[in-house]
Amino acid sequence: MSGLSLWSNETSLEGRWSDVEKQALVAVLGLEMVMGVAGNCLVLLVKIKVCVDQFSSLYWVPFLSLTLSDLGSSLFIISGSLLAVVSKGQVSPWCEIVSMLKFAFITSSIGSIESQRIRLLGVSCTRGILFLLASTACIASWVTGVVVGSVPVIYNWIRYDPSEMLCAVFWESSYSDMLVYILTAFSVCIFAPLLLIVICSLLTSAGCQESSRSGLKEDLSSVTLLLVLVYTFCYTPFALSELILLGRLDLSPSPGWLRTLSSVMSYMDCGLNPIIYCANQDFRQAGLALLWTRRKPVSEPVLTHIAILAT
Fold first, then answer.
1. Is the N end or the C end of the chain the one with fewer CB atoms within 10 Å?
2. CB under 8 Å to 34, separation ≥6 — which residues?
3. Percent of the chain scored above 90 by pLDDT?
4. What is this structure's pTM?
């Protein structure tokens, strides 16, 4: 039996959600979409309206890139999966667009987090050089994601996967094509940025005392490590699913429940990142400034009559 037949038979059986499972998926996806859209819109408002006066993120490009990536994923990818569960599928050309955007958002997210470490390593560089390096890294991550995501579209490797609740890459008969593509995509888009983040973190830890003596003010880069940990946690099921696929020479897909879990967990990362930003005190105060209107302080009453009688 060919890989395509195996994939078609298994995914058709896995895609038959019961009413309870479908309602649960709709509820979870809806919550993740609301958290992602509301949280990342708030982050953008904090940067645009409040940060200029109250909060300064010295190298805001990586955080803007990460926020736009999470917001785009919430608006297009999560909503696409939600509609797919309700309508039982996705059609072309939306199918191919979603697949390409998914790779772009995944790569841009880890690339944006990686570029945030430039600030802590380049304490001796000028602000302009660090801004240029961070901007270049973010743009490169977006371009890499689009290129990697375009390859399956060009070679017509895309089809709807009911378990992942979106269009994904599938393989007909060539194990070598699958091996080369998956290893290349993971090496360029995920493993290399994570390795650079680890190296940067070690170098930063080694020079942390020197940085503190230099009086370098902390900004949102202080939450980078937490962003990395949450990203790794949320995308672990996705990585496991791809590794299982690599170990199956018959090209049969990984378990359906694992593919569903990988989608749900990766979507959760989009809504958690704005919450992580609130771990920074300055950002949290800037966010509260948007939620509370400024009121003029009421002047304390002065007992003038008593003062006059006393004189």
1. C
2. none
3. 19
4. 0.79
